[in-house]
Amino acid sequence: MSFEEPVDEASLKKRKMPLINTFPPPVDSSELTPTEQRVYLQLSLEFSIILEEAPSFQMGAYQWNLILPSRLQTFALTTETWEKLSALGDGSEELQAQLADLVEQFN
Q: What's the total number of domains in the chain?
């Protein structure tokens, strides 16, 4: 099969490949949507608060890892999707400025 030929859906079904709609939504763009930005800011703020209140960074990271699965479930995110969101958010100067303002407001 060459790249010019259309994909034979029957052959994909025989391979028992998952349906595309079972995958989490892609986060491939360099910019986050407004909804993704809100989720990023919410979870990042929670992470900052946990680290601030923990006696050590290690304890804060441990506590964060304990609650992260339930927080991701709240937003219907997979760990992989969250890692992509957080990488894009961490690299955005605008979001980092907003996060700094939120951290200051809630501390």
A: 1
